[in-house]
Design brief:
The chain is α+β, with helices and mostly antiparallel strands. It is 23% helix and 32% strand. The chain has eight helices and 17 strands. The strands form three sheets. A seven-stranded antiparallel sheet has the order 1-17-16-9-8-7-10.
Amino acid sequence: MTGDAVRASNALSARWVWDACDGTTTVLSGAGVWPLLALLAPAAREPGRGELRQAIGVEAAGAGGRARELLAIMDGSTAATAALGVWAHAGLPVEPGWRGAVPEAAWGELTGDQSEDQARLDAWVRQNTRGRLQRLPIQVVRDAALVLATALTIDTAWQQPFRDTPLTPEKGPWAKRARELAGLSRITQDVDQLAVAETPAGPVTLLTVQGQDDIDVQLCLGEPSLSARGVLAHAIAAADGDYPVHRGDELLKRSRARQTPGLKVSKFSSFTPGNMLSVMTARFDITAKHDLLARAGLFGLATVSTEAPEGHFPGISRAQLAIGQAAQEITAAFSAEGFKAAAVTAMSMNVTGAPMDEAYFLSIAFDRPFGFVARHRPTGLVLLAGWVAEPEEWPEDVPTSAVW
């Protein structure tokens, strides 16, 4: 079922942010990695098969179909696109069953000419990320036997735009900046965009910023003592229904506002009925690169990235294959107008044993470090998650008065 694949991918995202988010600025996409791992799992032999199965959170049998379902969800979005690419060396014998599991349009060929192959795959990256990323996050080495990649893009405009506004935090790690920060602000009557999740680590504030399409971005804030990994992992789990969540009006009725990190409540005289929500946050444009083999155990790649006389992927080829590189490059920008992001995840395989015959492989205020999670609204799929530790500064050539 598609729902199982979504929850499994979200769980991988949560484990990854828990392992990788150390409080510095970063962004990552578990949804970009999960389909590649799901394609590899059914083709692997034990113990690598079991490690991959644990990483993807579903049974290896049929996981290739789940990978295609997840890619279809992303590519079927009105604000996101997804692409899969698989390139095999002309001399690599590929098992018919695995070749059939990969859509025909995704197949390509490696010539063994390193510069030519790299240029062609880099062009694929630019085409499938709308130019936001320029290169594959791995090098196409001359003896590469197989390269797998996913490309993900998000481009949505906010239903209600923000204003560019100078941000001057009164306290916290950003308060001592010499210059004002590049902030964003808006006021809305939809107070239910704000929510607080009751997690085992304490309350986590969630602000849902809706795109005009089917993508939402949640800004996430915990107590100052809660780590970046804790904020993001619990935010993902809360949105998947694992914890109680209380929204704007309910926060006021149950007097939970005081337990909501970052929130201040005051009374005012209004000419229109209803409560108001004022939002202040930091603008950001960040890029990150991740070596997946540095966390091989998390992604089920520990065994299959080692040399073995019999190889690790008999379901792909009778050649002795092992993962040689695995990496992701990703960028995300949150502005007054909307949200844009792109991620490319790639893995390459090398032949580890003796070559085959003839096989020559040539007011709420997010005014301190905070997290963000981009979701596909209809399914809840987490497309990417990140942490903002270093905000942009307000441009010196733009006077404060120009923004009002």
